[in-house]
Amino acid sequence: MELFRIGGKSPDTNYLFMGDYVDRGYYSVETVTLLVALKVRYRERITILRGNHESRQITQVYVDSQIFCLHGGLSPSIDSLDHIRALDRLQEVPHEGPMCDLLWSDPDDRGGWGISPRGAGYTFGQDISETFNHTNGLTLVSRAHQLVMEGYNWCHDRNVVTIFSAPNYCYRCGNQAALMELDDSLKFS
């Protein structure tokens, strides 16, 4: 409820939730129930993305055709938004392939593609995110999926931002939470 106190109440504020609602704390059922209830009540104001811990939901959203929001990261099998639109998303989370990558991949300081230490998805460098954004006319990839101690982290020369909104993750990490606010001209704070 702290998130709504800081970010603003629904329906006064549009919200985009980027996944991993279950199996990460004592209130998973309550969290999912609240988000689904808000989605039903304010369907134009609440967007719920699929994380790698959920199944049978949506995977990504585009904000004003400039910001690509997804749970995980990019895939070496996908170079355009059209390739993503063509994916069959009505399936369980696969162990490999482009849909798995979108849910599991992480940005990295090294260039190119790398093997993910998570065992699923890939790591991708600044060259990959810059090319993806340029090819698709995007200004930003906004993602979640990765604990960042300050709640958010810009990387790849501000081509990618990680937003992590679970404070003190798993009741033991001591991290801050963050949310990203966009104004009408898509300036973020």
UniProtKB/TrEMBL annotation:
Which top-level group of life is the source organism from?
A: Eukaryota
Under what name is this protein listed?
Answer: Serine/threonine-protein phosphatase
The record ties this protein, via PROSITE patterns, to:
SER_THR_PHOSPHATASE (PS00125)
Origin organism lineage: Eukaryota, Metazoa, Ecdysozoa, Arthropoda, Hexapoda
**InterPro entries assigned to the protein according to its UniProt record, in alphabetical order:** Calcineurin-like_PHP, Metallo-depent_PP-like, PPA2-like, Ser/Thr-sp_prot-phosphatase
State the top-level EC class. Answer: hydrolase
A GO molecular function term, named singly, is: metal ion binding
What residue stretches are annotated with the Serine/threonine specific protein phosphatases domain? 49-54
